[in-house]
Design goal:
307 residues; homotetramer; 2,3-Dihydroxybiphenyl 1,2-Dioxygenase, domain 1; 6 helices; eight-stranded mixed β-sheet; alpha/beta
Chain lengths: 307, 307, 307, 307
């Protein structure tokens, strides 16, 4: 078991149909802080408990969905080493120069077999509105809306999830926390961790490539999940399912949609993972229980709606 | 920033005055599972959500306190490398052969400047009562007592905490999550992390060496902290302080004593840490707020009672 | 506004298909204490926080459903007065003599227009396992299963809910906390309170008379609702819906079935009611939101399955 | 057992040293809505979940403390009847005419043996910002600060608590939920209920008459108690004790002071009471456990600081 130099999912760039509406949603409902709407038109946001400058980038476009998911690595040297390993494996990498996003250093971009763009970077400016570090209070100001603690992970849909997972495990050093398999042993869902989270990215087999199933934010507790549900109802957001619990990861969760139709999750709890933990395995006939531990079945929208 | 090969605090061997009473306390109150009382007289326990065979070892003795805190590392090769680094730094290491504790492989033992014995090991048997891994339920049976999820960390007292911390950071690769310093810059408390926990071990300056301040167990939520308080009261356990919250780590906490006088903590919440996070710093005049965020002061027993 | 002499729903007699299974369900899952299985074959149970001898009576029968819901009144004199008012209104009353149920005094029984049997009584023995009263602890022993605090209310289905409600309000002195009405002003759901609970009994219009929709138990918190959901999943109980929240009463809730198909609810929260509060009113097009505030729609089983 | 016509503690008029500071405290920290600062200089506030126009009246004065606690009764006729019963018992009553407080009808004022002024009234305007009643949402806007649900009760200190309690029980129809007594049977604390709350008013023996120990507000949950503690710490409010739990009433609680030195409590949980419940009794040697179930002892400020 090798330890990975990938620290965490650092930011996500998401396409939205109406930037103003999206800012209201992510800032006032999810509770992120708006860092800036940059001259290039993109909105940069971060959760109150994140040190880095931003973690969510919203880009207005004609179609919703995911532009890129980016992972922060431990150092520029580690970035070079990981880029080398990708190229050695025959994967084409592109270098995005420092400054393409404000505050972010050079990024290594590559496309995974499921069609998603992934990036690695080692450098990002610290926010001056991150957690206090000198005789710190809990927060600078009381968290707002659903009180999201951080951008946590995303779930991606595509065809060759084995191929994508292999890059994350064999090249980037992620561990497989959970997997759901068909009777003939083919994975239909793979949960991958680069630290102590039950998943830092997850993959589900789907007939279309490059799709985003959901963007997930961490909340503090099951109490906050209930509070999020109250806000979803009060503000007539589009609910997908929940409050409920996952069998896989054991997280307590609620799913809903942003105004552009991108699915969001807020969740809390679940186990903490170590890379020496056995991989938990689900059989396909228990997929319902794996995903929704209470309902023990999957519903149509959850399976079919992706962006 | 280098990533460490130390996975986590794996087990703690604690001295108790009466093994029977101690088993009742750790099994029925804290909620650990008793793995076995081994022929050598030691009791081995684990929390319901831990994969490894045991995490708490109780040894009956004339004096309470800590025998050893042991960290699990990622591989036997990593164990060799870390042992080499210790020896290169002039630290004497002893190898404890496989089998000294049932199920545990070879261990590297060394003494830190604060007088505590520390061990590293890479191999421990998996429990057959660990978390389920095939179409898993939340737990095999409903958690008991305070519903401890895992042994989490310990806080050690001694004189040369700078020296001990230096071994953890410079040789073992831990990161410093928080530190409290006197006006002349001398650390009086140091919080060290080898993963995403706000602390995996903590050190406080004290006039006596080799002392244990507390053994800490993770609970799921603030609700469970309240429930632990109910049990402490109902069973007339000796309460030290809480329910309250730490300024440092932000954990929600309650302190009490086992029947032998060893301090226990159960806590929940707090932030998750990454090694690229800035170190949070407390000034000595804010030590009260650092330790007890609500009370903003320290009480006599918390400062003076150690085992 | 007159104050009512009706204290609370005191007990419910429910028909079950298999008494043994039902006892396991209500004792080990809901968490009631089994008082006794009496010589007449009925099982008597109570929640840990109830003073009275029993609150749930299970009777084995060929068909599940409700035998009777009984309300405790403040005194024998009040019982006489209420019985007189019922007879003055042309309602036939029957006196069930003391001792038909162990520990219960004389009861006044009558049938309401929706076909349900209702009883009033003033006297029931105190349990020797009720809440402690001398230097009390929180509980004698830690609550079990879903940790039900008390039998709380039931929801009944039938045709003439206006007629039944009129007896509760005009004769027994209940207040109407909430009502849902069709566009032409006809009530389809009526919530009735005899104290500070948002409802002590509720009525829903339905084509069949004498039907039980659900029996409800109070839990302490949303945390305990989540815990109940965990138990429902772990023990493969039949879930109907939840965890969710009601618009009406604002209670946080989960619905499931006992092994005989009687629907159970456990809930927490919601507002406390006073008889001078305005009646909250729902229009029929908002019935979904009234019942399930998060989902904003009703599902088939919830509407159609009654016993 | 007679049912009382007293509905609830309706409002409290409290003296504060600085009205501006007090408004910030009760509005932004406790979370009450400011109804108005009336031409007479008094500030009127209410909790978001209360229907009546106001429940807390702040009057600027040179000394903090309590002007009056007022109870709402079920009707003008009941008010007349209760006033008659008071006069028959030799208690002098004064009628405060409608309009002395905006929106409040005629009040009957009398002084109890412990020196406190008590009022009864039947009429108060409904707030236009009370809970929604047509297809209601949970709240009009998300609760603020500590998210107080309602003014709940007050605890009064004075010498002849037996005499005061006798008026509440024998004349006004309150029930005694709990009492703490000295070895010779003299009550030192009495908890009185006019509904289903464990206490609507409480009395503690003290050498000075007319004193206010605390004003209490209801919160939703133990989670919200923790959140209140976070706010107390963050805003440097003066904490007295908590988060903890009461033995008496079982409420989960935290005590702190308003800027004028009046003690506030926010609490959640505890049992619901019925007037046929046995009175819980505490012996004086268990007073610590009765008041602070976790700490099992009383601290100096809690005993001595009253306004």
């Amino acid at each position: 078991m090798a330890m990975t130099d990938v620290l965490r999912p650092g930011y996500l760039q998401v396409r939205v149909l109406d930037l103003e509406e999206a800012i209201v949603h992510y800032r006032d409902r999810i509770g992120l802080d708006l860092v800036e709407v940059a001259p290039d038109g993109r909105a940069y946001l971060k959760a109150y408990d994140e040190f880095d400058r931003h973690s969510i980038v919203l880009r207005q476009a004609d179609e919703s969905g995911l532009d890129v998911v980016a992972f922060k690595v431990s150092s520029e040297a580690a970035l070079d080493a990981l880029a080398g390993r990708l190229r050695n494996a025959g994967i084409t990498t592109t270098t995005i120069p420092e400054g393409e996003q404000p505050g972010v250093g050079r990024r290594i971009r590559f496309r995974v077999p499921t069609g998603h763009q992934v990036e690695l970077y080692a450098t990002i400016a610290l926010s001056d509105q991150g957690p206090m570090i000198n005789n710190p209070d809990l927060w600078r100001t009381e968290p707002r809306g659903m009180r999201a603690i951080r951008f946590d992970h995303c779930l991606l849909h595509g065809q060759d999830i084995d191929g994508t997972a292999k890059i994350f495990t064999d090249i980037l050093g992620f561990a497989t926390s959970e997997v759901a398999v068909t009777p003939d042993g083919q994975p239909i869902a793979i949960f991958l961790s680069c630290g102590m989270k039950a998943h830092d990215i997850a993959l589900v087999r789907h007939h279309e490539d490059g799709k985003l199933h959901h963007v997930s934010f961490l909340l503090e507790s099951w109490s906050d999940i209930g509070h999020a549900a109250d806000l979803i109802a009060q503000h007539n957001m589009s609910l997908d399912i929940g409050p409920t619990r996952h069998g896989a990861t054991r997280g307590q969760t609620i799913y809903f949609f942003d105004p552009s139709g991108n699915r969001n999750e807020v969740f809390s709890g679940g186990y903490q993972f170590y890379p020496d933990n056995p991989t938990r395995t689900w059989t396909a006939d228990q997929a319902g229980k794996a995903i929704f531990y209470y309902e023990k079945k999957l519903h149509e929208t959850f399976l079919s709606v992706v962006t």
